[in-house]
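Reference record
================
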Amino acid sequence: MTSERAAGRHIFIGDVHGCLDELRVLMRQLSLHAEDKVVLVGDLVAKGPDSAGVVAYARELSALCVRGNHDEAVLRYRRAQLQNQESPRLKKGHVDVAKSLSEADWGYLEALPLWLEFPQFGALVVHAGLMPRVPLLLQEPDLLMNLRSIRPDGSGSSKMDEGRPWATVWQGPKHVIFGHDAVGGLQQRPFATGLDTGCVYGRELTALVYPEKKLVSVAAKRTYKEINA
């Protein structure tokens, strides 16, 4: 899944999680221009105050985005409803988000790919991570949205305490821009940059701006959710 090339900047943004006000402030701070391309690393929804507003704003910006695990959670609810199946077991917050979304919002979320490639930068965007030495087309979708660590036996885990952080063992050649790991915060590895700086947990919303590779952050207005909740 390869992006189209644009004349302006590419602005890669970490997990928004419904923090619409902070996303708008970040766009103002970056003096967003029409030729710029916004790229979101997934988890637009859940936990924060205005998930529907974030999805609508992403549509307004014609933003590119990859699918995060929380985006996928509300999509599972949607698919079950459409197919008259029993709803999956989800947190109340996910169900509330699902009930707040418009048809246009659903269309945007359903179209989200699992990864985006930016060959002009030698970069690739994925929500959570990539398994080392596994071809991109053979990566497991669940791990693309949930990976956190590599176990000693080489398998991937969604938990942080079962092995080494995947980005510490990723050796390229593509530079991976990802989110998902608010505990790890901003991560700057030789071949990976983690942008989830925990806005919804009261910290910051962070962007990585190409081609200059500049980091720009704005502070959260408040703590919307405790990080272990």
The chain has one domain: 10-126+175-219. The longest strand covers residues 204-210. The domain at 10-126+175-219 is CATH 3.60.21.10 (Purple Acid Phosphatase; chain A, domain 2).
